[in-house]
Amino acid sequence: MKLTGKVVLITHVSEFMGPALTEEFAREGATLALHDATESAARPAVKIARGHGRTAVAMAGDLTRSAECDRLVKGVVDRFGALDILVNNNAFPPTRSPADEISDEAWRTMMAHLLDEPFFCLRAALRVMKAQRRGKIINMTSAAGLVGLPNYAAYTAARAGVNGLTKAVGREVGGDGIQVNAIAQNYVENPTYFPPSLTRDPEKLARMVKNIPAGRLARSEESARLAVYLASEDADFFVGQVIPFAGGWVT
Q1: What pLDDT is attached to residue 200?
Q2: Inter-residue contact 42 to 34 (CB < 8 Å)
Q3: Out of 2, 153, 190, 209, which residue is the most buried by the measure of CB atoms under 10 Å away?
Q4: What was the pLDDT predicted at 58?
Q5: Strand ordering across the sheet containing 178-185
Q6: What is the set of domains in the chain, with CATH numbers?
Q7: pLDDT at 240
Q8: What DSSP character marks residue 113?
Q9: From the CB of residue 248, how many other CB atoms can be counted at a distance below 10 Å?
Q10: Are 11 and 214 in contact (CB under 8 A)?
Q11: How many other CB atoms sit within 10 Å of the CB of residue 216?
Q12: Mean pLDDT over all residues of the chain?
């Protein structure tokens, strides 16, 4: 197992890639701190991890508030004595709108959830990891930030911001024994963007597949296994990389 003895914090475990990440990190032996907006929302993921015989705890907090991110990371270190891996698993449904019709509130809300949150958690984690002289940070983001989606400017900009953050901070802390990387995905089954109600509709699925050179959607565990790889010692030479994972939709 690649992650035996490693303490991992995964955010928003009930959303986006959270369930699959929990499953795959637990399979690889990790000790898991599983965050969501409420502890009750995180408990199904805790059950998944414990089903693999892993130590797992539910943690809660509003990560749009930097103090909550600081508190969350401190709670992990207080409980387990270290934080080896942070997985920023942020999601927020995009709203279709021409750029000139995006309200200040809609723009700010998108940035708060998709850019502020991962930055606040990354910053809190770095303070611990620098002292440890080791650590891994994986940002789960979107290939939309690599190509730009017309009429989704706020979503695209927020995701592109995380991609830029990954590159800049990755280069900044690479010499400190810390690797920061991102998975920029699209067309991956998950409960937030590609739920069963969408992927099990033959007509909708056929329309989506036309956009994917690979000819199919990815299973959630495929992306989660890539995250496990980036979290492992096998990926120590990956520094500041934003890895497209979209079946050829972007290359």
Answers
A1: 94
A2: yes
A3: 190
A4: 99
A5: 56-60, 31-36, 7-10, 85-89, 135-142, 178-185, 242-245
A6: 7-245 (3.40.50.720)
A7: 99
A8: I
A9: 12
A10: no
A11: 11
A12: 98
Task: Please give the structure tokens belonging to residue 86.
Answer: 């942070």
Nearest Cα to Cα of residue 19 among 243, 134, 241, 188? 188
Contact (Cβ atoms closer than 8 angstroms) between residue 172 and residue 131: no
Going by C-alpha positions, the residue among 154, 152, 145 that lies closest to residue 243 is 145
Over its C-alpha atoms, the chain yields an Rg (Å, rounded) of 17
Confidence of residue 235 (pLDDT cuts 50, 70, 90): very high
Indicate the DSSP class of residue 201: -
Helix, strand or coil, per DSSP, at residue 81:
coil
Contact (Cβ atoms closer than 8 angstroms) between residue 215 and residue 209: yes
Tell me if residue 155 is catalytic.
yes
The mean pLDDT of 8-13, rounded to a whole number, is: 99
- Name the token pair of 44: 């199904």
Q: How far apart are CA 237 and CA 118, in angstroms?
A: 22
Active-site choice (152, 155, 187, 193): 155
Structure tokens belonging to residue 57: 């705890």
Tally the C-alpha atoms within 13 A of residue 66's C-alpha that lie toward its C-beta: 7
pLDDT per residue as tens digits for the range 96-114? 999 999 999 999 999 999 9
